[in-house]
Amino acid sequence: MAAAKEPIVQVFTPDYWEEACKHLGKKDRVMKRLIPRFGDVRLESRGDAFTTLARSIVGQQISVPAAQTVWRRFVELPRKLTPASVLKLKVDDMRGAGLSARKVEYLVDLAIHFDSGAVHVDAWENMSDEMIIAELVAIRGISRWTAEMFLIFHLMRPNVLPLDDPGLISGISQNYFSGDPVSRSDAREVAVAWAPYCSVATWYIWRSLDPLPVAI
User: Which residue intervals define the domain HhH-GPD in the entry (predicted)?
Assistant: First the structure.
């Protein structure tokens, strides 16, 4: 049987990016130095909310290559990846794709939340970051960090500061404190100058550690 073709995914970029870069360059000496290093590369959002969150669950605590393999096997199980189709899958088939029992439970819970309307996708545009985080962390397997990554990479919210992210803390340490240890309080103090574009500044801090753009 021929392998399933990957669907064509539309890619979106934030309309506020240029304005954010100008703001950060004026307000922060490190950003003024960092931003020009990466040219026109910017944050990209792709795919739908359910698929993005499902992929984040599949990739938890395993290597990127392993996650890609398991994801490819998983998405070939249903004819189309939707909450309803996931709820119809057999547990044995999901386990056979390489998913742990716990991740199967997480994916089923994610599908239930989306299928039942417990997450208000259509209303997210008018909801605050914290309200969306509260909806997402009610789903098994989704932590606050995962929810914040979703806000940045999928919803492209401009002012998210993921203080639980080790890359952000490490990057602040290297770029602002000469490698000395950094507390959450230190990070918040640095980020005062970033507002209202903490997501953009965080993205550039990540780039300073790894020039390849992150995607979820």
Answer: 58-210
